[in-house]
Amino acid sequence: MNNYKEFISKISSFLNLKKVSGEYFRFKDKKNIDNFPKQYIHEYFNDVPLISADNVIRTDNATTLFTCAGVQHIETMIKNNEILKDFCVYQPSIRTQFIGKTKEGVSTSFINFSSIIFDISNNEFLDKTKNYISLLNNYGYNNNDLLVRFEEKSNTWGTRKFNTYVASLYYNNFRMGECIFMKYFPINSNQVSNIMEVGFGVERMEWLSKKDNYYFSRYKEIYDEFKNDNVSINQITTIIDSIRTSILITGNGIVPSNNNHGYRLRQLLKHFVFDNANISIPLNKIEQIAYDEWKSNTFVPYSKICNIIEKEVERNEHAYLLDLLKKYNIKTNIDITLPDNAFIKSLKSRIYRENTSIILDKLFKEKVK
């Protein structure tokens, strides 16, 4: 693709798209693109080898703290001086910018499927884009309900700068995924490559296709037990997400701290405590399901993961109680890292000394009796 206009022109013509408004297009042909359904996602890109996922924890000199997309394997290959070969990958990914913003369809951790082709030709790009549409069609998406949005972006990976032409697919106002043409990506000071990426979140794709009623389908029992007139599905998703991502991070050797990876873990567990305070989903229920989901991508034993998480949750429960006291103008400097029994004893003493009647959140009622 020599330029952005050519990029739009070729895809629009090849897929028979018509402009709707601004950068958005629809399919003129309401019929789905013909293809035989395949068993696995990567089979739609059957000439691109499937590789093992990267570690979700990036090294100190990487561009991000966590692996946030399968395309980052390019960074891994360059760092290891590997020959750049086409690949597909189901990559566990973490995007901590969504901490505090999660809901159905939006999470801090997910599986990102990526198919990457180096030195892509125009015809290959169009062919792989068509394969992606076929994949969506065979998951139940009708072309009549899909929107395509075109964008041109400037990108920076560390010291590398390059432009991308992006064709994103939308359904029900959610971005399903994108086909990206990375123009003149700088491999090194003497080498550039035009690269194609097809990338999307597997959980979101399956959820929006109605194959799963809940975004986190493995946790159906928790949704069914705790959702009611006062507790929304989005609230439960947010609570599950904090522990689900924490299991993945802790399972890769990270412990809570005040910087870098450990700080993001600490943030997640604080959100779990504060978001769960009035709902009281048992921590161990989420831990077991989350570990079963991520165990092939972790190396820390389950019991150790739980001990680390539960200790940090207890610390944040203590912080939550002190926040409640502040609402009643009771200030205290009780150490939140104290063992639970010692902390509660000090807390009770402080409450009684103030002779104040406080109704604490139900999550902690039993602790302060």
**Can you tell me the CATH superfamily of the largest domain?**
Bira Bifunctional Protein, Domain 2
Number of domain units:
2
Radius of gyration: 24 Å
For the largest beta-sheet, the strand count, sense and barrel status come to: 8 strands, antiparallel
**Spans where pLDDT lies below 50 across 5 or more residues:** none
CATH architecture level-2 label of the largest domain? 2-Layer Sandwich
Text of the CATH class of the largest domain: Alpha Beta
What is the name of the CATH topology of the largest domain? BirA Bifunctional Protein, domain 2
Topology (SSEs and partners):
Blueprint: H1 4-15, E1 17-21, E2 24-27, H2 73-79, E3 87-94, E4 109-117, H3 122-138, E5 147-157, E6 160-171, E7 174-188, E8 191-201, H4 202-208, H5 220-226, H6 233-250, H7 260-276, H8 283-294, H9 302-327, H10 340-354
Antiparallel strand pairs: 1-2, 2-5, 3-4, 4-8, 5-6, 6-7, 7-8
Helix pairs in contact: 6-7, 6-8, 6-9, 7-9, 9-10
Task: Please name the defining characteristics of this protein.
369 residues, alpha+beta, BirA Bifunctional Protein, domain 2, globular
